[in-house]
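Reproducibility note. Readers wishing to regenerate the assembly model reported in the main text can use the exact inputs given here. Chain order matters: entities are listed in the order in which they were concatenated for prediction.
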Amino acid sequence: KAGVTQTPRYLIKTRGQQVTLSCSPISGHRSVSWYQQTPGQGLQFLFEYFSETQRNKGNFPGRFSGRQFSNSRSEMNVSTLELGDSALYLCASSVTGLAGTDTQYFGPGTRLTVL
Amino acid sequence: AQSVAQPEDQVNVAEGNPLTVKCTYSVSGNPYLFWYVQYPNRGLQFLLKYITGDNLVKGSYGFEAEFNKSQTSFHLKKPSALVSDSALYFCAVGFATSGTYKYIFGTGTRLKVLA
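Running the prediction on these inputs yields the following structure tokens for the assembly.
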């Protein structure tokens, strides 16, 4: 069974640009959640999608958005990039979601560098 | 304000000894509680979570955690530590607010198991 895949693995952008990151969950998983990890702010929850609907959202500005497709693949978009958006972006998938009882599986992450 | 705390930046334990990594939280309502582990160069992994039910939760790699409502704690434990358990451990709490759930992470505890 293939694991969670994230593309691209590395990305370099400049301030003001926008970026789209992709997450392909394990087959059969309907929940995808996104996280940001930085040395300064640590781990932060971005949002959770379940069956194409945003279920929960963290405290991030509107520049951060996401969506989920009918095949459960998810994308997150960051517009008007700032230096502080440089981070490792992680996604995780599960069958029932964060409020369910099953295991989350994480992807390897996308490392975004904003210059 | 809702918060989660991991009071120890680092925990050292001898191989074979029991280990405890502490987590306390301050949220209103009934929380969801999580433990994650991050090994060097291996990404983030889910260990266990408490949603409801039995206060003692068993997870991956022989870890367990006990939800203690009166002490607002969710300490991670293992009866016999292995050198391979050395990693960075994160506690997280989910709480209901304004019709949605938010999730916040502790700052992490570095566990070092000494041979």
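We highlight two features of this model. The radius of gyration of chain A is 13 Å. The CA atoms of residues 16 and 81 of chain A lie 5 Å apart.
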